[in-house]
């Protein structure tokens, strides 16, 4: 039986994500610029905690001036008509596939139901947002205690802000908003500025990968900034058979790559020995068919030697393939990479 030190934090288990969430980006991740703007009430637990990328924790015996400290957003017990709400700005404008409304550690204080509305706004002003035209994208859905609630969204529009409604009150430990950024590179198409064509904030996404036994999925390669630790990257298991590990990535917009950066930050005894990049301009197909095709794509970057805990920059070695939409990032034979950057110019329309 597992033991637990009294008073030590208990962390919530990760959600078992369906495919639509695994193939998406958390648009409410503060590392993309997301933030909680306001709440009708957050007496017991500050609303900004709800967007923390780390798993929710419960600390026995921890109290503050308002009562038991809870890791999430928690309002006081409502004694009047109405319901509580929170305004959230997404990190980037995006199409939403679904949500994880996580009530981990909220047992007698979770909300019986939650709904979510969305709007498009150029301002974060609370009064202006309250007066905005809101569209319900998740109808009132029943909640349970101490659980991940994975709920799909039928909307195909792109949104910038959300209004999260709790009926009538209670606590939400974490809110994940799974979707895909859109349109962020369109304004840069006419310029000569080099942009990271595969960055998550620019609409890049991880389409498929053969393994992600340690750390995050291959999507971690596309996050902003350098990795914060060895868990903040894409790491595969130790390969015990011939071959190599790989992932297929879709650019935020078609473009021509001029410089490639491979960052092995924090990976020291487990970085790949070598890497290469293949690429293609794909105009159709499904994720599965594109993955199959990727084995035969042209070489954008031939095999290059890697070192531990370092940023590797390749310019002269990058082949002149013209505009591309997808890349296959190969690591030999296995290991961990923190970030991949594909610096280039957006294809002019």
Short description:
This protein is mainly beta and 349 residues long.
Distance between the termini: 62 Å
What's the helix count?
A: 3
Structural domain tally = 2
Helix share of residues? under 10%
Q: If you consult CATH, what is the topology of the largest domain?
A: Jelly Rolls
Task: Give your account of this protein's structure.
The longest helix has 7 residues. The chain is mainly beta. The N and C termini lie far apart (62 Å). It has 2 domains: 172 residues, Galactose-binding domain-like (Jelly Rolls, Sandwich); 161 residues, Jelly Rolls. The model has no long low-confidence stretch (mean pLDDT 94). It is built from 3 helices and 25 strands. Strands 2, 3, 8, 9, 10, 11, 12 and 14 form an 8-stranded antiparallel sheet that branches. Strands 15, 16, 19, 20, 21, 22, 23 and 25 form an 8-stranded antiparallel sheet that branches. A 3-stranded antiparallel sheet has the order 17-18-24, with no helix packed on it. It catalyses: allantoate + H2O = (S)-ureidoglycolate + urea. Its EC number is 3.5.3.4. It is an enzyme of class 3 (hydrolase).
Keywords:
Jelly Rolls, 349 residues, 3 helices, mainly beta, Allantoicase_dom, 2 domains, eight-stranded antiparallel sheet, 25 strands
Topology:
Blueprint lengths: L9 E2 L7 H4 L2 E2 L8 E5 L17 E2 L4 E2 L2 E2 L4 E2 L9 E19 L10 E7 L6 H5 L4 E8 L5 E5 L5 E10 L3 E2 L1 E8 L13 E2 L8 E5 L4 E2 L18 E2 L9 E19 L10 E7 L6 H7 L4 E8 L5 E4 L9 E9 L3 E2 L1 E8 L3
Antiparallel strand pairs: 1-4, 2-14, 3-8, 5-6, 7-13, 8-11, 8-12, 8-14, 9-10, 9-12, 15-25, 16-19, 17-18, 18-24, 19-22, 19-23, 19-25, 20-21, 20-23
């Amino acid at each position: 039986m597992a033991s637990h030190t009294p008073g030590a934090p208990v962390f919530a288990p990760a959600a078992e994500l369906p495919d639509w969430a695994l193939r998406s980006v958390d648009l409410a991740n503060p590392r993309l610029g997301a933030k909680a703007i306001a709440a009708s009430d957050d007496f017991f637990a500050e609303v900004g905690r709800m967007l923390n990328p780390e798993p929710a924790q419960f600390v026995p015996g921890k109290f503050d001036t308002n009562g038991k400290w809870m890791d999430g957003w928690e309002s006081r017990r409502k004694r009047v008509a109405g319901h509580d709400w929170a305004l959230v700005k997404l990190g980037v404008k995006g199409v939403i596939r679904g949500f994880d409304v996580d009530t981990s550690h909220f047992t007698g204080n979770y909300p019986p139901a939650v709904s979510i509305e969305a709007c498009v706004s150029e301002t974060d002003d609370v009064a202006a947002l309250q007066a905005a035209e809101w569209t319900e994208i998740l109808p009132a859905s029943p909640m349970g205690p101490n659980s991940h609630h994975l709920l799909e969204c039928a909307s195909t529009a792109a949104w910038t802000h959300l209004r999260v409604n709790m009926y009538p009150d209670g606590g939400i430990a974490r809110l994940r908003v799974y979707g895909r950024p859109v349109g962020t590179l369109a304004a840069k198409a006419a310029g000569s500025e080099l942009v990271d064509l595969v960055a998550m904030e620019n609409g890049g996404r991880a389409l498929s990968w053969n393994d992600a036994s340690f750390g995050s999925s291959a999507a971690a390669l596309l996050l902003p900034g350098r990795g914060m630790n060895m868990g903040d990257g894409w790491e595969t298991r130790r390969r015990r058979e011939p071959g190599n590990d790989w992932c297929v990535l879709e650019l935020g917009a078609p473009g021509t790559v001029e410089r490639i950066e491979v960052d092995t930050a924090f990976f020291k005894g487990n970085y790949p020995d070598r890497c290469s990049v293949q690429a293609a301009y794909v105009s159709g197909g499904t994720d599965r068919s594109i993955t199959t095709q990727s084995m035969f794509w042209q070489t954008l970057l031939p095999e290059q030697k890697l070192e531990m805990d370092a940023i590797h920059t390749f310019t002269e070695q990058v082949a002149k393939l013209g505009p591309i939409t997808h890349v296959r990032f190969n690591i030999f034979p296995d290991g961990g990479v923190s970030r991949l950057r594909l610096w280039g110019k957006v294809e002019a329309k």
